[in-house]
Amino acid sequence: MDLSHMSHRARRAFLKKLKRKRKRQELAKEIVEREIEELNRLQLSPSYQAQQAKELELAALEAKERERNEEIWQEREREAQRQWEENNRQKILSKQREEETQRKIKAEWESKQIESKKFIPQSKPQDVHEQQSSDLPPWHLPPPPVPIPPVIEQVPHGAIVSTVMEKCSFFRKTGACRYGFLCSRLHQYPSRYDDIIESFNIADDQDVGALDEPIDNSCLVLQIPKMFTHYHLDLTKNTSSEDQDSGLEVDESQLLSDYHEFYHDVRMELESRWGKISVIRTCRNLADHLRGSVYVEFSRGPSAAWDAAEACNGRWFAGRKLTCTVVRLGGGWREAICGLYHRGKCPKGDLHCNFLHVFLNPGETSNDLQKTLWRHVGRLISPVDNNDHGDRGRPSTVKSHPNNSSLIHRHQHHRDRREVRRQSSTSISSHSRSSSPIGNHHSSRSKNNYRNSRLSEYHSHRKSKRNKHTSSGSRRSSLNRSPSISSSSVHKKHKKHMKERSHKRIKRAKENCTDILNETRSAMILPAARILKQKPSIWVEINLAVAKYKPINLGQGFPDILPKQHVLESLTMLGKPDVSPFLHQYTRSMGHPRLVTVLSKLYTSFLRCDRKLYSESGSLQVDSFGPDREIDPLKEVIITVGAYGSLFTAISALVDPGDEVIIMDPSFDCYTPMTVMAGGVPIYVPLRPQLNDGEELISDCWKLDIKELESKITSKTKVLLLNTPHNPLGKVFNREELESIADVCIRHNLVCISDEVYEWLVFPPNQHIKIASLPGMWSRTLTIGSAGKTFSVTGWKLGWTIGPANLMQAMQLHQQNTVYTCPTPLQEAVARSLEIELSLMNTHESYFNEMCALIEPKGRNMVKKLNEIGMIAVRPTGGYFLVADISKLHVPSNELDKNESLSYDVKFNNWMMQNKGVSAIPMSVFYSTSNQHLGSKYLRFCFFKEDSTLNSAYEILKKW
């Protein structure tokens, strides 16, 4: 770590802290070693062996008891099934007897009617009403109402009782409140459309001159709470902290230096994206609602602040997730910033003051800050300009907005005529007295003189107009020439006429503004920011391309052969009418009892730690899951919607925002987006090929560098994602590699999520070893399996996770609030199929052995065919994918895509799909952005297809 930027005192403190940390680590290591020695000594003692023998006997008795309880439970279930069938049969017979009785009664009645040949008399309305009333339940009078005494409040005489919630003054001025949502007063957040709505929210009886009146000195700014973080602020806030390093001293110059560096970085980034910044301020208050908050006002106006808030919200800065909002400073910067702080007179200090104590920006002094505040207020309301008859020192309430520019131009078009009418009207002159005194440099006498001069101009204008039309014989010219008509009556008529016109104009403006707002609001409905960050899935793009060009699809991993016969029969049996109706209803949220029971039986033997291999205690500690234990089906197994659901549920249940997740490149493409959606930070460690001349190229040549893995681990690292057999490489991790990974997980306290969906597709002589079976790994490992990959039924979308009860409980809490449960019929069918396979385990009739024997020759044949056309194929040791090097194949460069942003494997696959009629998957999509170059010359092929499909593809490739 570079310590050159620290001061001498800070460096010494840091080194002392590091020394103490090392001593604590050494002491902890010695304690662990002593405990291991003590454990070994106890294991060799006769008392311990006797205790172990007793525990074995108890475990055997418990196993027998569980088997007996299971038999009793199954017998009860069979008895309940028989009872239900008997009840159902009795109901059917009873229903048949009742129908037969009704039929006989009806036949007798019809025969009597035929014999008597009489009509049935119609019932009277009174009889019908009595018959209907007789069928109703008896009437019960409701209980009498309980009188509630009125609450009389003492209201002072003459007081006005308001039902509107009072606004919080501190939130109005600073955009933040110490009490947050617990505040008893109203916190009114602005909307992007407030400025447009306020511009046209004018009563019908108001004159158009009200459009030129100011609202206030407020301004809309971007607020980023707690963006600037500094340990000095935390230390000075908690002076009584018991932290051993709380006494470190940090001078003011160091704090300002760090802030200036932060200021330049933030300002540069914001201005590069949303335009010039007029004001940027950062709080140094110690209260939680203001500490480190950044306020930004853009020169472009509120629209830039809204755009910046939408783009920055949810981003990460300095290890924290930003929450950006737009707030209104009701009194402007002058009322928001504490004016006494930089004078050294603030009596409440940084912790208790509710106004902004801001840092001085680079090159700024306290006097400069005061002057800037007053100049800023002056700019809000400019002085009167005699050349501009429309403004007169008042800012227009119609804000600039891209959707109402035409509306603003219409108001500006008639501004001069409105000014003339406003100066001659006594009602409009009253508005001039309500303007803000800030920036108004005219006295009342000068205002009256100016109004009188404008009034005389108006009279002279009217007089010249009358003289101009003297020769015409119109009625209006006669009236104008008549000395009996005074100028005041003409003014009143003209004012009434123009007022009607202004009302019509305002009404049209409101209608246009409503249309603009509806269009703008519908266009601004956006999804969540965390979803917008996700890239489109490669599978969506491949499906579209396959549907368009109709190639032979060797890219996606789904078989085109039928599954085993007993698997299909297990599903079709559930459609018969004699099955229990409960198999078509909800089942347990964590999984169907029959399925979790058979899974626990299946995996218990595979997950038990073999103590013969680890008799000597080393860095790997032996945990409680050994040969004397079985998986608890009700607490340690959970059924999910496919392996996808297992991965998403596990990551969401374990990863907190900011936690780091180790992902090995290349990896399945869903690992990264699932981590990001959970708030985690993916850290990539690549698998690098280690090739030797003369050796066969197999997937096991890709190795994990343990030193590189440990170098990526920090204090925030929480989860390691492992995939074996690996997709897309087809690599099966051996015992030595898994032991190294387990050692890292134990020493750094990491949780391992082991994706093992291809566990039954391991080609001899390789063996699949579950990392959870290694010493010390059961308590920190989640093992994921898939029914779709196990029985070649990927459309069933059933997966499972097996692990310790505490981690399973976290996954259950997540699942019960998302999907709740998985389809019961599919779980029943998978359970029946696994029971059959469990009885055939380790025999030639087992589907697991048949599947390996079926697809291994397919993989070897594909390697041979791809090598014949010039590719360099990598022989897999597990799964049903292989990768091939395409760098040796000659492809005309003029036929490839010219898009430079695409890697070579993507261009090659697109060209092969369009020109050769065969599709694969580019390997670069399985790599992170920093490691994409490692996969730019490889393609992934799936060889678990029908022989006819593979032969058709080989015939096409022969013509290369």
TrEMBL record:
The species this protein was found in: Schistosoma rodhaini
Sorted UniProt keywords: Aminotransferase, Coiled coil, Metal-binding, Pyridoxal phosphate, Repeat, Transferase, Zinc, Zinc-finger
Biased composition (Basic residues): 460-469, 490-506
Pathway in which this enzyme or protein is active: Amino-acid degradation; L-kynurenine degradation; kynurenate from L-kynurenine: step 1/2
InterPro entries membership: Aminotransferase_I/II_large, Kynurenine-oxoglutarate_AT, Nucleotide-bd_a/b_plait_sf, PyrdxlP-dep_Trfase, PyrdxlP-dep_Trfase_major, PyrdxlP-dep_Trfase_small, RBD_domain_sf, U2AF_small
Oligomeric form and interacting partners: Homodimer.
Biased composition (Low complexity): 424-436, 470-489
Necessary cofactors: pyridoxal 5'-phosphate
Stretches assigned to coiled coil: 15-42
Zinc finger (C3H1-type) stretch: 162-190, 332-360
Keyword S-adenosyl-L-methionine attributed: no
Molecular-function GO term, any one: zinc ion binding
SUPFAM superfamilies the record matches: PLP-dependent transferases (SSF53383), RNA-binding domain, RBD (SSF54928)
Region listing for Disordered, in residue ranges: 116-137, 381-506
A GO CC term attached to the entry: mitochondrion
C3H1-type domain ranges (all copies): 162-190, 332-360
Family: Belongs to the class-I pyridoxal-phosphate-dependent aminotransferase family.
Biological process terms in GO annotation: kynurenine metabolic process; mRNA splicing, via spliceosome
Bias (Polar residues) ranges: 397-407
SMART domains assigned: ZnF_C3H1
Protein name: C3H1-type domain-containing protein
